[in-house]
């Protein structure tokens, strides 16, 4: 699995963050100033870099979905995301979109409100 490319040029992305209007984008070192609420992507030296796992989403409250990485980290994810990277081990995490998960299982909302 290759590292994501910057959404503003073709350089390797270093950051994942919000762009104008709340959309999410990847940015390189030159374009990081365009993002707010940004997070650094995992470094290449991480032990699980290049590996991938389908993971479950856990909700701490109605606004906080977290992907459960096999390394043990609970990685914060955006409610409309379907993938992300573990910030501890670098593994590429794939999951069902958290908001879709909640809408298909309304009973789960009871414990979050």
Protein architecture, described:
This protein is mainly beta. The chain is built from two helices and nine strands, in the order βββββββββαα. The strands form three sheets. It has a three-stranded antiparallel beta sheet, with no helix packed on it. Strands 4-9-8 form a three-stranded mixed beta sheet, with no helix packed on it. It has a three-stranded antiparallel beta sheet with strand order 5-6-7, with no helix packed on it. The protein is globular and about 45 Å long.
Give the arrangement of secondary structure elements:
Elements: E1 15-18, E2 24-27, E3 36-40, E4 52-54, E5 57-59, E6 65-68, E7 74-76, E8 83-85, E9 92-94, H1 98-104, H2 107-110
Parallel strand pairs: 4-9
Antiparallel strand pairs: 1-2, 1-3, 5-6, 6-7, 8-9
Average pLDDT works out at 80
Pattern of helices and strands: EEEEEEEEEHH
Please give the radius of gyration in angstroms.
15 Å
Quick one: biggest sheet? Answer: 3 strands, antiparallel
* Count of extended strands: 9
Strand order of the largest sheet: 2-1-3
State the secondary-structure class. Answer: mainly beta
Helix run count: 2
User: What is the beta-strand fraction?
Assistant: 25-35%
Distance between the termini: 38 Å
Query: So what's the overall shape?
Result: globular
Q: In percent, how helical is the residue content?
A: under 10%
Which spans of ≥5 residues are poorly predicted at pLDDT below 50? none
Oligomer: single chain
């Amino acid at each position: 699995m290759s590292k994501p490319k910057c959404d503003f040029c073709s350089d390797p992305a270093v950051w994942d963050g919000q762009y104008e209007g709340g959309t999410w984008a990847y940015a390189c070192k030159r374009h990081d100033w365009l993002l707010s609420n940004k997070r650094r992507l995992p470094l290449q030296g991480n032990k699980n870099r290049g590996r991938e796992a389908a993971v479950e989403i856990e909700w701490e409250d109605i606004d906080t979905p977290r992907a459960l990485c096999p390394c043990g980290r609970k990685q914060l994810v955006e409610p409309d995301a379907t993938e992300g990277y573990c910030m501890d081990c670098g593994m590429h995490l794939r999951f069902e979109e958290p908001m879709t998960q909640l809408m298909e299982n309304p009973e789960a909302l009871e414990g979050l409100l």
